[in-house]
Amino acid sequence: MASAAGLSPLKDRALPVTSSPALATTPRPALGLRIALVAIALAAIAVPLAVVQIAGPPAAAPVLAEISRPKRVVPKAELPEVEPVRLAALSMDDARTFNAAIPFSTDPNPAARPLILDAGAEDFGRAVDCLAAATWYEAGDDPVGQRAVAQVVLNRMRHPAFPKSVCGVVFQGQERRTGCQFTFTCDGAMRRTPAPATWGRAQTIARQALTGSVFAKVGHSTHYHTDWVVPYWSSSLDKVAEVNTHLFFRWTGWWGTPPAFRRGYAGAEPVVAKMAALSPFHSSTEVALVGVVDPAAMLDPDTIPESAVPKPVAAGGDNFHVVLDKALGADAFAALAIRTCGERPYCKFLGWTDRTKVPAVGAALTPAQIEAMSFSYLRDKEQGFGKALWNCGEFKRPSPIQCMRRTPVSAAAAPAPVPSATPEVLSGVRRKAAPAPTPSPTAAIN
Fold first, then answer.
1. Residue 320 confidence (pLDDT)
2. Tell me: the pLDDT tens digits for 372-428?
3. pLDDT in tens, 83-100
4. How far apart are CA 113 and CA 118, in angstroms?
5. Edge to edge, what strands does the sheet with 246-250 contain?
6. CB within 8 A of 158, min separation 6: which ones?
């Protein structure tokens, strides 16, 4: 439009009248020739403009400067930051050119250790389906790409910068569009479901990864992206592998080496509502314990009066050591714990029916106190899980996965106190931490 406006006065303007004999006797160009010249001038301006408009503007120098960040080696004493997914505004060709210019690391790229997921049947089923979803939505029906994605998920689960469960890793940040680590969890992609045969193949690959299969090529990678996009973190990490159109990265320095990947599994998996259409293990309501508790025996946490809520061990703290009333009923202990924890993102509720076993304020738990514990509840929203367990020697439960793992006190054991959040005490069934929007007898624990 700008070029046409600039040319219209030239096309319509009459030639100036002059009294110069030379000019007066000079023959004027024919009308057809003048029209042809104007058309050529218009084309000389309009064609380049059209090319620019179709191709789009070139990549801005500030964008390239921002994504060309130098590598920062995070000290061992400082946990590396997990950045949200944010892509540079580059065309596909510019992104591929930029990615190709990032050299592969020349440092060793050892394979990850095999992982055998130590979980109950329900948690293992949830882990398999979360991992299968990640592989299918990220890599399609490509077994090589799926194995690579699965390895990255397991690498993250072992790294202290990420959640300690498979589903926690896959659905990290799902609640906000700009915070999800795997974009399919927050961009609506899960409205599209795989065919049964395709889903079965993804589940098989996920199950293999959780029972010792290792995809060695990606090593200890914790990040990846397709070669036609550029996340803002890409040039600051070590590029270690290429699988089809995906590039794989690990943190620089100590945080990308095998010793950094030594964190244990949480022992439980969150129930993810978005997985309900794909997985029966995720379709249970938030009545916790995956439906193995009798809903009729449950107590609505909101019905517990404030006067009955115990105080934390320390003022404003997140730990509670509580004397439990057997008359309340074992199923009501979980409701009391949830009511006590309130909106705390992290909360540890430990209860005893024998008041003589409750630790003194400020004292660490002893092995004898752990052995005598009647009930425990642990919530950690950041890691994406909640767990409620009973002392099944004191209270019979409908499923062994609700039972604490017992660690008998040995007379030869050292008398030193042990931490109160030992995996032996707080391993087992996972519960969601947040209360359901409409409390009811069948949604009392979440």
1. 94
2. 999 999 887 766 567 888 999 999 887 677 888 765 554 434 444 433 333 323 322
3. 877 888 889 999 999 999
4. 15
5. 223-226, 246-250, 238-243
6. 112, 115, 261, 262, 263
Domain layout of the chain by residue ranges: 2-55, 92-260, 285-443
Q: How far apart are CA 243 and CA 145, in angstroms?
A: 7
Dmax over Cα atoms in the chain, in whole Å? 128
Its CATH class, for the domain covering 92-260, is mainly alpha
Burial of 339 (0-12, 13-18, 19+ CB in 10 A): buried
- Cα 202 from Cα 226, distance rounded (Å): 20
Distance CA 271, CA 434 (A): 12
Please state the φ and ψ torsions of residue 296, each to the nearest 5 degrees: -65, -25
337 with 312: CB under 8 angstroms? no
Whole-model pTM above 0.70?
Answer: no
How far is it, in rounded angstroms, from Cα 442 to Cα 446? 10
Q: Spell out, as residue ranges, where the chain has pLDDT lower than 50.
A: 1-26, 52, 55-56, 59, 284-298, 410-446
